[in-house]
């Protein structure tokens, strides 16, 4: 199997964390045809990275679909990231959807626009960021205090949180989790897993290279 990857992509990073955590037999490679071309769309209908290509040539897009697929087919290692308990599995999915439908849409994307210099209202962005993090703080509290193994929801959220740490200073927030102790505890916990920490560092370095590349072109 091959994972088509961009080094700075938070979505691809999720899958790379999973691959590394569980030593999955997946080769990580750049897209085989240029993004945003007819050829790419032809081969990968959703037009985005990451894409997992199976040995038979079938492709799976959308990071969450890829992660669930890998967890399901690698029953020995992968399934450890899919909780057996239905409630914990629902909580795992809530965390993933919180990352994509709340935190990314309402906080991260506006911060990206701020990084690109195309967002004006920094106070509004900071306010929305705090509101979205407060949601996460409450969501984590609703899961209770019992210790549990890492799952796909944590892996999905981690790269988003890395980006928030990188970008929040642009809107005057030095440490986005300073006001959210439960979230800060979760962040420390996910970073205690070496594959999570290492992939996040790779993303951080790749993001800065990407931004410097854009600045050099401008
Ligand atoms: N919902 C998708 C998002 C994927 C996505 O937005 N990928 C970006 C890279 S971070 C991409 O392919 N951008 C290229 C483009 O839009 O042309 C997922 O979870 O995989």
Automatic annotation (TrEMBL):
SUPFAM superfamilies: GST C-terminal domain-like, Thioredoxin-like. Coiled coil: none annotated. PROSITE patterns: GST_CTER, GST_NTER. Residues 1-78 form the GST N-terminal domain. It comes from the Bacteria. GO terms for cellular component: cytoplasm. InterPro entries: Glutathione-S-Trfase_C-like, Glutathione-S-Trfase_C_sf, Glutathione_S-Trfase, Glutathione_S-Trfase_N, GST_Omega/HSP26, Thioredoxin-like_sf. Residues 85-209 form the GST C-terminal domain. This is Glutathione S-transferase family protein. It comes from Microbulbifer pacificus.
